[in-house]
Amino acid sequence: MKTAFVFPGQGSQKVGMLKDLYEAYPIVRERFAQADEALGYSISQLCFEGPDTELVKTANTQPAILTASVACYEILKEKGFTPDIVGGHSLGEYSALVAAGVLDFKDAVYVVHKRGEYMQEAVPLGEGAMAAILALPREEVVRICGEVNDTVGSVQAVNFNCPGQIVIAGATKAVEVAAEKMKEAGAKRAVMLPVSAPFHSRLMEPAAKRLQEELDKIEVKDAQIPVVANISGEILKDGATIKEALVTQAAAPVLWEDCVATMVDFGVTRFVEVGPGKVLTGFTKKINKAMELANVEDEASLAAAIAFLQGE
Length: 312
Known about the structure:
Elements: E1 2-7, H1 19-24, H2 26-39, H3 43-49, H4 52-55, H5 58-78, E2 85-88, H6 92-99, H7 105-122, E3 128-134, H8 138-151, E4 155-162, E5 165-171, H9 172-184, E6 189-192, H10 205-215, E7 227-228, E8 235-236, H11 239-249, H12 256-265, E9 268-274, H13 279-287, E10 292-296, H14 299-309
Parallel strand pairs: 1-2, 1-9, 9-10
Antiparallel strand pairs: 3-5, 3-6, 4-5, 7-8
Helix pairs in contact: 2-5, 2-7, 5-6, 5-7, 7-10, 8-9, 10-11
């Protein structure tokens, strides 16, 4: 029986997240203190007290979720639970890499803060958009994006989350046109998302180049635990290859459905979502109904996850 720990991405944040675990576990307080030091401001205060208007800013959201997720992982590790394989959705890949020993925690906090800044600066506010497409086949989403890309402007499928949910991103007008065409083609819904940039689209290439410079400043080690890469759905262990994948990932689609399929092929039967929210748990249910699922984001879910991992 193999277990995967998976780590959430942007959108899972909420004011007050991890406050009960922060008060209960010294290791959580230690990680938040290290994050505050790495950033030069209090991400702890933003997580616990807000305001939400600051927490949702990409450059704050990314280190906040990473810190919360790694802190949850540290509790599980202290209690003797380690995964057979790890993965994370977008930003969550950095949390997975900390868990796998690839990135130093403080380095990761600083890098994802810069990653958030660079992504926001790559496309001026209002000029990029994203939309969630529900219940339209993958190949149809890709086809329509190709048509609109050739006639209106840059748009592509960027998050292959689970059967029935694909996110598209690009120039605002092109995303709006593609969303309408997808509804005409039979999509159940096409919902414009409240985001500040077209994440994981080719419009993020300027951010990827700047991110390369940040990653060149830190040590990226070989993985001690197998890691599944967003850009390919393949297992990576070599540090140099992982660094290249992280640069590419900033401006390339997240193949989350493929990542989960790879973990299942690896022999995983249990998934634990480590960090705020239950987004990945929901995706996994839709990708493979046979998987056993748990999550860790507060004291109640932690207790349930421990019982789950002990087989109780």
